[in-house]
Automatic annotation (TrEMBL):
SUPFAM superfamilies documented for this protein: Ferredoxin reductase-like, C-terminal NADP-linked domain (SSF52343), Riboflavin synthase domain-like (SSF63380)
Name listed for the protein in its UniProt record: Ferric reductase-like transmembrane domain-containing protein
Topology term for the membrane: Multi-pass membrane protein
Pfam families linked: Ferric_reduct (PF01794), NAD_binding_1 (PF00175)
UniProtKB keywords: 2Fe-2S, FAD, Flavoprotein, Iron, Iron-sulfur, Membrane, Metal-binding, Oxidoreductase, Transmembrane, Transmembrane helix
Superkingdom of origin organism: Bacteria
Amino acid sequence: MSMTTARRSQRRAAPTATPTSASGWLRDAIGATAMLTMLVVVALWVHGRGLQDLGGLWTGVTSAGRLAGLVSADLLLVQVLLMARVPWVERTYGQDRLARWHRLVGFTSFNLMLTHIVLITIGYAGTGHMDVVAQAWQLVTTYPGMLLATAGAAALVLVVVTSVRAARRRLRYESWHLLHLYAYLGVGLSLPHELWTGTEFVSSVLAQVYWWTAYGVAAGSVLAFRLALPAWRSLYHRLEVERVISEGAGVVSVYLRGRNLSRLPVRAGQFFLWRFLDGPGWSRGHPYSLSAAPWGDQLRITVKAAGDGSARLAALRPGTKVLIEGPYGQLVAARRRGRGVALLACGIGITPLRALLDELPPRQTVLLYRARSEADLIFRAELDRFAARRGIRVWYLLGSRPDGGSWLPAGYPSDRQVLHDTVPDIAHRDVYLCGPNDWMDLAASAARRAGVPDERIHLERFTW
């Protein structure tokens, strides 16, 4: 191991972050509201004679199918809201946690949708003394809105199938992201059959008010925060590529300039979805973290070529226009609570932590940077300047990946011994992690064993 340090150069001084915590009451209020919507749905089902209909065999099957469909639709709208980029929701939970909930809620909603389809078909077939297949065909071809609902269900099946881990591993991010947009189509196509044939819609004013409000809030949030706000920020700040610098094998830094960037509510450690208007494929957004704190009217991202989107950045020309969506993320200095900070980075995961060095108190900060070799270190010169001029301690942990489950390179002592040698007081510090998912799991586990509580371990996952 070698220890060195670094300093930020040619940048405006960033204010020292003060320890803060997420708004607990807002977090609880948002969670309670989501739960309340499902209670409202069940109450509306009861109001529509859902319980009474359970008394008969086939009416009971149909009523249970209605309830499954109502809860499925409600969860589908919750799922849309989870990824609508509502600023106060994102700031409260963070995009990585919202993405995990989005996935869980999505699969639950999908399973309930299938349950709804099966039970409704069986219930109607039993009541009408028909064959199940014939009944299904009759429902699709003769009931108002059912052809659209079938197309919507097919779109949702496509989204779910491509969201299974085995399928995602075979898809490029760009392809997966495009297919995932069909979820909005599925939601939209399912609405007509609910309005025209849904018992709760046609028989209850209360239900109509609730569902129209729910659909309006979901659609409005997507339009406002996924489309209108990013469009306004892109037009207002007028970002464009200033220059592209090679940082090593397959790694480039893109420097961007814009207008009035001091009004952009972004902090070191956060990320944007970037769209570079350099030709075909520009419409696909890519999540890249800032690799330096914003300074003046300039931003910087640093990217390793790992796919079509990231590889093309090396060929960007000065003056290329840029669209942004964000900022997102909670890997910020304001979350720290301890009296010091330990940053643990692996590979390209150094980028948001490098940006954090611009805002963290230098004498209270230690960086442990894991890389395969000296040639794989990014920002080596910058980190060395941080050490020499500001007193930040930096440890480079070099070597190949070990066979066993450790976040350290092969040949190093135990996790506990390395943490004791490099950060003896780690139990009293906040720990920020960034790197591959499995590496972060191992590093977070080591930090917990060293006495760091969960609320002072900060990480974000960028997997899709």
